[in-house]
Amino acid sequence: MLEQLENLDSLKLALALRNPAALALIYCGVDPSPSQIRLMNAICSPDPQHSQIIVKAPRGSGKTNIAAISFAYLHRTDPTWKILVQSGSYEQARHLNSYYQPLITNPELFPQDQLLHEPTANLTQFKAGGYLRILSASEKQSRGSHVDILALDEAVLITQDLIDAIWPTVRTSKRPKRILMSTPSPKTSLEWFVRIWQDADRLKFERFELPLQECAWINQEDTDRVQLMYGIDSETYRREFLGEFAERTGRVWDSHLIDGPPTPDKPHPRVIVDPKNQDEYPLPLASPATEWTIGLDWGYTHPTVITALEKQGETVFARDCRVRTQESFTEIRQEIITDYPKVPVYADSSSPGENNDLRRMGAQLIPVIFSEEKSELINHVRWRLEQGFLKIPNPTIEPAFLPLVQQMKAYHYDEKSQKPVKVNDDCVDSMLCAMKGFLNRGTFECRIVKRRV
């Protein structure tokens, strides 16, 4: 009986070592999709045509898991492989190691006497000279070694300086391989990642996608539901859930969403409403039955704009939009304190002096750092427009809102920088500042972490 069990174990191991997909199925319980199998075979192939790989995938598609299993397969078949993984974040590095280490420390799969020492969260070394080093964001450490395989996990999160530092690390290898993997989120190095993807043939990169349709472990109904439940706008949905590029060109928000009539090909809730119709535009309420925010965009050569928003249920109602061109900053500060006492003021951080003066007058002031937060705020407004959770009084009835509506419709991206053009956007910036108070922070990211494969 013991001999039969040993034979079964030997057969199991022999089957697992036939290819990385077999190892995934037998030792991880993972049944890879066709696209994942093609990616695993390319990572593990010695053929030079697979020496540069770029992977575009949605969140939860299993790219990190697939890479970890492939690296374990390489080390099981040849423990001299030197592999460096540069992760976009500490969390990403931790996930990759959590997939890799159980395979390496499984005595049934891996002879433990091949390990040089006890594996750590960052380093697994083999007596034959190979290793897997996983770093989160350290240029000094990354520069310190020459490797056979360089993998960038969530490449768009890694700074260009760090990419430049680690890019040459495979040049001295006789079997060099570079692997770029990412969800195309609008982060630090998205433009660099997109350029390689689009110009892959000339740059000699092999392209791989992990389509959502093949990810049976992802709840498709929940994926469709998540836009409404977690405040995900259409562009973020395309990037994070479908793994598609969402190019920032043309108008920031579809003008049809703002004041266009619903049509069969473009059904959408109305944003511009009749302020006299209480079914569309209910009377304002006071706290704690409702939430209010003030958005403040200071103007020096441009107008200063004060925007008041109120949130009833999930819907945000624009209650005021004041464009101040003649008043002094002292008068504006007094106006805010008098008309909106105890309402939190979200102000552009680029005017710290004025913000501090307003804070000294008793305002609850929260700075808005547009260089870091504008993209998220724009996406949030897009979600509200798409779901009908933003209502603005008809400017023909309430002329104070005409500048805001006009600026929202004209707001557009620069073709080169893919950032919003800073022209005639004071009302928009004020509205974005006020919207910061209604962001559902953390919910979406927590959801994503729980769903990782």
Tally of strands: 14
Which class do the helix and strand fractions yield?
alpha/beta
**What's the gyration radius in Å?**
27 Å
- Measured as a percent range, the helix fraction is 25-40%
* CATH architecture descriptor of the largest domain: 2-Layer Sandwich
* Overall tally of domains: 2
Sum up the overall morphology in one term: elongated
Mean pLDDT: 84
Report the CATH C-level class of the largest domain: Alpha Beta
Separation, N- and C-terminal Cα atoms: 37 Å
Residue share in β-strands:
15-25%
CATH topology of the largest domain: Nucleotidyltransferase, domain 5
Low-pLDDT runs: 441-453
Count of DSSP-assigned helices: 18
Strand order of the largest sheet: 3-4-2-5-6-1-7
Biggest sheet details: 7 strands, mixed
Fold and architecture overview:
- This protein is an alpha/beta fold and 453 residues long.
- The protein has 2 domains: 2-218, P-loop containing nucleotide triphosphate hydrolases (Rossmann fold); 229-446, Nucleotidyltransferase, domain 5 (2-Layer Sandwich).
- The protein contains 18 helices and 14 strands.
- The protein has helices spanning 2-16, 20-28, 34-44, 63-77, 90-104, 139-142, 160-166, 190-198, 200-203, 220-229, 234-240, 255-259, 329-339, 352-360, 370-387, 402-410, 426-435, 443-451, and strands spanning 52-56, 82-87, 123-125, 131-135, 149-153, 177-182, 206-209, 272-273, 291-297, 304-312, 315-324, 345-348, 365-368, 390-393.
- The strands form 2 sheets. Strands 3-4-2-5-6-1-7 form a 7-stranded mixed sheet, with helices on both faces.
- Helix 7 (160-166) links the parallel strand 5 (149-153) and strand 6.
- Helix 3 (34-44) packs parallel to helix 4, helix 4 (63-77) packs parallel to helix 5 and helix 16 crosses helix 17 (426-435).
- The longest helix has 18 residues, at 370-387.
